[in-house]
């Protein structure tokens, strides 16, 4: 049974009581729509109390999703998309080699080779031979996040893993802000 309920703080919420639901759960769609699902054995009053308890979490999720949507470029035609990628490639070739050289010098972390690719799955990577690959889509990030990604990859030249020692090194090199920078980076998607 599905219905819509207007919450005083959250606005419209879709209520879905179902025999398939195993527990009370909340989902927030990319559009910001909220769905409250609960099993038949749970009263609507109890499910709504759970919703009230999670109102802050829902608002934070909506905010995070809105930031991600705002960061997405408008849909481009294939020709426009190709031109956009080529523009990013030119910008990346002009910016990233000098940026990684400066950060390598400043941190004392050496790499063997830099490659710039149109990777849409990762911002960067570092091979076991200390070859660093950076996505040209880094050019869509603010400069401080470009630096953070490059420092992260340079730290892999010392620790080829995500061990506590690796994270301690990254954290030290970014002034104790690794978690905050990583959280900020997650708000962006590669497009």
TrEMBL record:
It comes from the Bacteria. InterPro entries: UTP_pyrophosphatase-like, YgjP-like_metallopeptidase. Residues 72-179 form the YgjP-like metallopeptidase domain. Coiled coil: none annotated. It holds the Pfam family YgjP-like. This is YgjP-like metallopeptidase domain-containing protein. It comes from Alistipes timonensis JC136.
